Every structure is written in structure tokens, then in C-alpha cells.
Amino acid sequence: MTKIAKNTVCLWYDGSAEEAARFYASTFPDSSVDAVHHAPGDYPSGQEGDVLTVSFTVMGIPCLGLNGGPAFKHSEAFSFQVATADQAETDRYWNAIVGNGGEESACGWCRTDGEYPGKSRR
Asked: Which of 30, 50, 55, 117: CA 20 to 30 A from 14?
């Protein structure tokens, strides 16, 4: 029997929750896209079939991507802190993020534009 997490990280996206989840799943171990939920009908800001939420896991941590629109943006106030075994692993993750549209930040951090690496900046 699968144990359901009592706490799930919810990340707000402006339409790119599925792409972000797939990026994390392909970049980090113990990560996966678990479910993609589509709108059953048209709604004020979208259409039937649009991706509404995506359940995914990042390094064992359950997450929910919510395509909530442009009202809220990501910031460095929330981040994934990843412990690595060596410099090669650090470089692999760094390059996956910075090399796909992310950017370097202070104190050895890297960040995305609030959606996911690889998405073009507006």
C-alpha cells in the first residue's frame, strides 16, 4: 500500500507545470511525473483539456504543480537545496539548470525565471 504524504509542496505556474515537472523528473534521481490532470470543460481563463495540475516527485519529495496563471511568480524565497556527493554531480545539476535558461545567483546558487529551465524568458 502506498503511503500518501501528509505534506506536499505546491508550486504555482503560469501554464508550464507539466514542462517543469518533466524537467525535474529527467534531471534529478528519485523524481517522476506521477499524474497530469486536465480540465474537464472550458473555464474562465482556459479550455477543456488544458493541464490544471501535475503531481510529481523531486528527489522523493511530493510536489503539485498548479497552472494558476500569472498572478504569482517564483522567487528564491523557496528553493530546492540538493546535497551532492561530489563536484561532478554538482556540475551536472548546475549545468542542467544554468545551461537551459537558468542563471547564476549569489553564493553559489542558481535559479530559473520562475517557471522552469528551458522556457524562454518574457
From this structure: 30
Give mean pLDDT, residues 25-37. Answer: 97
Helix (H) or strand (E) holding 23: helix 17-27
- C-alpha distances in angstroms, 72 versus 11, 29, 47, 66, 99? 10, 28, 21, 11, 25
Residue 33 CA to residue 26 CA, distance in Å, equals 9
pLDDT digits (tens, 9 = 90+) for 4-20: 778 999 999 999 999 99
Q: Which residue has the higher pLDDT, 105 or 39?
A: 39
Helix or strand (DSSP H, E) at 93: helix 87-98
Tell me the domains of the chain and their CATH numbers: 7-70 (3.10.180.10), 81-113 (no CATH)
